[in-house]
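Can't attach files on this board, so I'm pasting raw text. These are the components:
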Amino acid sequence: MVNRGDGPDAGAADFVERLLAPAVGALRPPTALSPLPFDLNAGVPDAATLPARDLAEAARRALERDPAGALTYGGALGYEPLRAWIAERQSAETGVALTAANVTLTSGSAHAIDNLAATFLGPGDVVITPAPTYPGAVRAFRARGARVAPVPQDSDGIDPGALAEALRRLEAAGAPAKLVYVVANYDNPSGSTLPWERRTELAALARGHGALIVEDDAYAGIDLDGPPPRPLFAAAGGRGILRVGTFSKTIATGLRVGWITAAPSIVERLSFMRFDNGASPFAQRTVYEYLSAGGYDAHVAVLRDLYRERRDVSARALSELCGAHVTFRRPAGGFFHWLRLSGGLRAPAVVAAAAHEGVAVTPGANYYPDPGARPPGAPPPGERGESELRLVYSAHPPATLREAIARFAGALSRVAAGAPPPAHRPPPVL
Amino acid sequence: MVNRGDGPDAGAADFVERLLAPAVGALRPPTALSPLPFDLNAGVPDAATLPARDLAEAARRALERDPAGALTYGGALGYEPLRAWIAERQSAETGVALTAANVTLTSGSAHAIDNLAATFLGPGDVVITPAPTYPGAVRAFRARGARVAPVPQDSDGIDPGALAEALRRLEAAGAPAKLVYVVANYDNPSGSTLPWERRTELAALARGHGALIVEDDAYAGIDLDGPPPRPLFAAAGGRGILRVGTFSKTIATGLRVGWITAAPSIVERLSFMRFDNGASPFAQRTVYEYLSAGGYDAHVAVLRDLYRERRDVSARALSELCGAHVTFRRPAGGFFHWLRLSGGLRAPAVVAAAAHEGVAVTPGANYYPDPGARPPGAPPPGERGESELRLVYSAHPPATLREAIARFAGALSRVAAGAPPPAHRPPPVL
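---
Top answer:
Structure tokens for the assembled complex are below.
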């Protein structure tokens, strides 16, 4: 008999603690926004560009045209015309003939990753990710009991040599990797884009070792220097690969409409391993009506111009004001600068000093699957994010970015000058 | 090296098969609609009552009032005013003082069950469910590697004596139940409603054995004979219990807005163990604007009248036309008749004969966690659903129900007369 006190929460914490799934202890906290005035931590799109009026109109049309369709369970795969729209676009882009049978709709790309984790991962299974990588994917993999094997990436993304070595090592150890996860375009957090040669190498390596590739293309469309190399999906000829997409970055994160493109046999299994009675047909049909109205490509072009300006303004400010303390490679798209601290500066101290200036940036360690553990022979601190930072340029207009980066520069100078770090708890990541 | 042929799907099936998570093999197929003309299989609300115009207006207001709020990530817990609205309602209903901190929003109640399964269940953990029970919950539990221990229910729901025995037995075996799952009101599939005495007994038993109760209240509001007993949540004083709710049955299944009410310490853990970047703020705010417009209670009252008529029409038709072959207890709410076949009729034969008449009903075995296995000493077939059927009265108007049940009666007579069953694959369940 457990004593739970007499309020709805009194004593409940202990009781709950004892019943938690083992996976709970294996995960780091999920994402959140920063309360600081200059939030360069949250990887969110610009709020002013959200096509709210067009979406209201699209929702109205979706509900008017087929109220029962928009408001009743839409099945595990989702709205067929939207799946066909995605398939058609991706056929053109990848050169692989795709139909609606190749596409399953999810509640955003985060849920897509959860869905594929449920389908392919059980306790002890191994997933290769780059290091650094997107922590949301790591959480979803570990929640299924999977083990994450990080492979270093450089400014061109995951290193094929290191990947080959990891695949061989895991196979030799009797625990071959089931999945290889990458954000090939405009990586979160590193901003890196995998060159075409690396894509073909990665595809050949995964195929050779019987691993499925997960190509998370969450930043697709946010091309700031022209189109990226053809998708990994194309390099793999559409075989042994799951490509994750979303309308979050090109329309709105609040819709929660994402998808997975894969062979029909995989799509079938993905639809079997979901537990949500399907994603929202209301949201899916609203998106479809929005797309059908014809303004989507023009909207994405506007976003590109907007984010390009922000990238360039922030890159210039970083070079001019912070050049003594950071190095970085200008990303070809997406939302992120990945900064390497020079002169022995440590990320936690810089993050704390920046917070003191009202600026939220994210410590690099948040993007390394295992920043805490450092077994004998492991890479030095620098490679585990202790001298790296992520800085988001997508969410704020140029003037705000300049002001935030000027404050950030002040923080860097103070840390470099050896000023004692102010007390501060680092913000969570997004 | 795996040969995957030369099309996107050629040879992929084998490759995929080998990589599937172990849980895939432990699950039965998910829900789906029937293609038959008289679908008494899908447990869906009436399509004509969907408040499409009001929801279009609500969506417009949500997008106009706070476009960035409606269209940007809304956090793991979800829109605070909607959580507060739910808490206020449930405070009045349960007598437990609740605030927004007691409520977390999910993508429908199906995702709520997945969320709590992720939070509390790992491989080998035990969940008690009634037998029969909702198969969607069983799938979500088993996907986390949990074991389901079924406890018989009668026409008043789960039997407290059998529950006490199961809890003791599991504890003695060193595998105490972590969760006790029930649909206390208008159960899917049995239509049973747990009397207040059983609710207090269940609450005491779960507390005594250190198990959390999951009260799935998906049919809340669909009260056809006045209000049901006070919630299990009230019987438990809000302690050691998670109450799952949804707007699917009272507004629309296509919105995918559900929630879990629990102690704040539990809500915090639930929000930690989700992998969707939060549910849709667009859908949540659309629902909130709809509720704020003030027509919700009147709408639910209309639904009650509508479903009451359908329940009564169908009950009358079943008694008059099928009384020789089935017995049932008229449910006090919800969507379902649970029929017991008399005279040795077997459900699979009746389902097949009904399908031949164009009528989809669901075999009882679909609702038993383990209908196939029958170890020595196990209950006789009747208790495993082989002489039971679920028949949905919610989705069709009275005339259609009468026609469908007349056809169903013909099927029963033919099976009773020993006519050979036509070839047919039984439809999937919803």
